[in-house]
Amino acid sequence: MGALPLRARMVLHASARCVALDTPVPADVGVSLGTQFGAIDVAEQALETVAREGFGGVTPSAYATGLPNAVAAIVASVHGLQGPNLTLLGYQSGLDAIIAACRQIRAGNARAMLAGGFDLPSERYAAHLQDTPRYADAGPILPGVGLLWVREADPADETAGAVVMGWASGHLATPLSTLGQDTGSDPDVRALIARAVPGEEGTGMRIHALYPGRPGLPDYLAASAPLYLIETVLAAPAPGVHAVLVQGFHPTACLCLVIRKMAGRVAERALPGSEET
């Protein structure tokens, strides 16, 4: 297989902490990962090799371990995770991967899932993005990994750090980047939350809006939402209900994950993942 690419080593290092939360690890644990850049550096390397040496210098096997689905496979192989193995693409895919993990658990396909996002930005493409108006006031685009251990949990367990209540995807007429303080009162946002948790419309709920190019903040791309969950929502000392919305580069699509942060232990590294309705 050769030396592991940097992105795989990044995810393996982060995943070791999550896997350590549930030892011995059951065989029916899966992996669900999202990435925005995917294997853009692999494509760039291939193009540079073709330009320099011609097509004879490019062999598919030389780039196989750099592909994003290979990262998920490598992580599963190293940790012995034999459950579902998913790879999703796009800016929202870090949150989408967590939602996909919850779906697998609900369907009985896995007892737990290692889920989240990672990105190792191409310097060339990151520089291109930061020259666009969307990133005019934003911080740098940085590499990152955000992983959570999503497992089935008893909703009545008050020692759990957080419980997923529901999720939904939909379209917003107004981009999150322009809503600002009005996010919670936007009718599309309220409808999205109501689909995630029937009967809820966001009243009394803390709403977190994530999107590319947030002013003054570094952007970890597909790792942004999982890292935000870990560092902001799950680390919050107070209980409460949170809705995390992520909108990618296409302004109408939006994903919503609603979780209940409870007063038990702070789940710094884990997001218990059964659904409560």
Mean pLDDT rating? 84
Structural class of the secondary elements? alpha/beta
Tell me what portion of residues adopts beta-strand conformation: 15-25%
Total helical elements: 9
Number of strands: 8
By CATH, the superfamily of the largest domain comes out as Thiolase/Chalcone synthase
CATH class of the largest domain: Alpha Beta
Q: What's the gyration radius in Å?
A: 19 Å
| CATH fold naming of the largest domain | Peroxisomal Thiolase, Chain A, domain 1
CATH architecture of the largest domain: 3-Layer(aba) Sandwich
Total number of domains: 2
Terminal CA distance: 45 Å
Low-confidence stretches: 264-277
Largest sheet: 4 strands, mixed
* Order of SSEs: HEHHHEHEHEEHHEHEE
Please write out the topology.
Blueprint: H1 6-19, E1 29-35, H2 40-53, H3 60-63, H4 68-79, E2 85-89, H5 93-106, E3 112-119, H6 123-130, E4 144-151, E5 162-171, H7 176-179, H8 187-196, E6 206-210, H9 224-233, E7 240-246, E8 253-261
Parallel strand pairs: 1-2, 1-3, 6-7
Antiparallel strand pairs: 3-4, 5-8, 7-8
Helix pairs in contact: 1-4
In short:
GO terms for molecular function: acyltransferase activity. It comes from plant metagenome. This protein has about 280 residues and is α/β, with parallel strands linked by helices.
